[in-house]
Amino acid sequence: MADALKNVIAQSLECPVCLNTFTDPKILSCSHTYCKTCLDNLLECHGNDQMLRCPVCRAETQVPNKEVSKLPASLALKSLIEDMKNQSQLCTNCKYEDKPQAVVYCQDCGKYLCSTCLNTHSQWPDFISHEVLAMCEIVSGKLSVRRYRKCRKHPKEDEECFCSDCRRFACFRCVVMEHTKEGHGVIEAAVYESSHMTSIEDLKSKADKKRSCFQKYVAFIDEQKERVSNVQKQCTDDINIVYKESVRRLTEKKEILIVEVKGRIERVEKELDEMKKSAQEHITHLTTIADVVTNRTKIPSDMDALAAHDTLCGDLQEALKQKDPDYKQARESSKRGKNVSFKENVRMDELGLGKIVNAVEKNIALPTKNSMSVMVGTPDGNIAVGCRKGGLEIFSADGRLQQTVLKHQNIRGVGFLSDDRYVILDSSNNITLYTIEYTKLDVMFETLSKDEGGISKLTVDGDDQIYVSYGKAKKIQVFSPAGGKAIREIPCDGYEPKQVTSYNDYLIVASSDTIRLIDKQGVVKYDLRELGYFPYAAVSQGNTILIAKVKHDVGLVSIDEYTNELKHSQKLVIDYKIEKPGRIWYYLQQYRSGEIAFCTPDRLYIFH
């Protein structure tokens, strides 16, 4: 009886959160007690809030200045814990009254053993696999005893069952007396424990994924900060070069310019730092609460511990509902920094070095004149320009020609599958697949001939389905990468699809002076009519829709951003003067790094 009472007392000295013996126990206003460290972790999980919610009863306690140390201490528990530590543990295996002191504790037998009993147990064949803890390790707190769950009403009975309605463990006698009424769901304790651990592992896995998601976001912000910082360095270098060539009286102007560019960049960096801080706080939040929830040193042993773990699991599930990072916000902030540049004065009679301006565009002549037929983004973040005279010219975001591939293949349309294979549409409406190493694959597609379908264009969606639009036939065919016949057709009732672009579960179709957003059965969801000029659409890196309107007769292009309902959001480029090409044919795309690419038959323009 004394051993059973001692076991009950030991269980009462366990914190419901960490399931270890209390260390520096603190009392909440609801009278429940927890370790100070556990309360610090719980408070951290709630951010800047000074209110602590009890994991057992969910009552709130005000924490003065967010300092858990100022909460009242449980002096009685502290004293009892010290008494338990100082009390010599006797052997629980010896049968006679004058029991010797224990030297070890066997986790598998659940008994304290003296040196004589330890020698006897060591001779058992199965004893070699038992986990034995030295008493000095237990007393010092380095190791904790795994206690067997005993019923408090029937101390000799193990709690082998669990009632899912009462949310508590029970022995068989308690089940018969208290948990046989309708509505009580009783299962084996081991079954519940297994299910509980599976649930915890699932939460841990989700927390790891969410933490990884925000860690990638933080890395992305660091990358944007580095790019912005490089812009500041370049601007400062340019200013200093011009300064050294100017007279001594320009010193004051030089310092004004440096302060100005620094101020612009620091404002952007501050925005990015705030985004990074918010993401890191969420990572810390997820890590702290996940570590508390997934403490696997023990299985909850009573109602308080079970309630605490249920509450913590609920807190973790709430944390997992946090939306994934918004890359668009970070990208827009960094764009404002990356667009800063220094422009030198050209008039010698001006007493200024120059001024800070926003970079506007790059104007690159295409190697193959009057041949551009399509422009798409590549899997590695560049832009590929397809030529009807042959070849695919790939440009980086700074306007440099990286390489020209498929030089002898005339190209009308280009797409990329998820494994980076090229999908090429030629002027005869034939589709050809190429590997990433530009090896032609033996896959045939039964497309419409040019006489049947007219001029065709191509796009590939996120599910690797290939869409081919036909101007004359006024329809879109859908193909699998395996080739063969079209798996279905999408009608274009009353309009000619000149360009087609995949957008989430929809297609963006440009024709005449109208942009349409249609679903994959051909139903028009939204349209933008009477734009007045030739419109060309693309999908932005922020998953909005970009539309370029070209005044071909005067050589002016404007680019605007629209929502997924084709509602105007903002103007990006207003009446920019281009070199008027011979053909009325243009394309619009956006680099992964944010720059907007606009292509005419002869030239590539890159806007920041």
UniProtKB/TrEMBL annotation:
Keyword annotations from UniProtKB, A to Z: Coiled coil, Metal-binding, Phosphoprotein, Zinc, Zinc-finger
Coiled-coil ranges from the UniProt annotation: 258-285
SMART domains the UniProt entry points to: RING (SM00184)
Name of a matching Pfam family: zf-B_box
Superkingdom in the source lineage: Eukaryota
Entry GO terms, CC: nucleoplasm
Domain annotation RING-type: ranges: 15-58
Protein name as catalogued: Uncharacterized protein
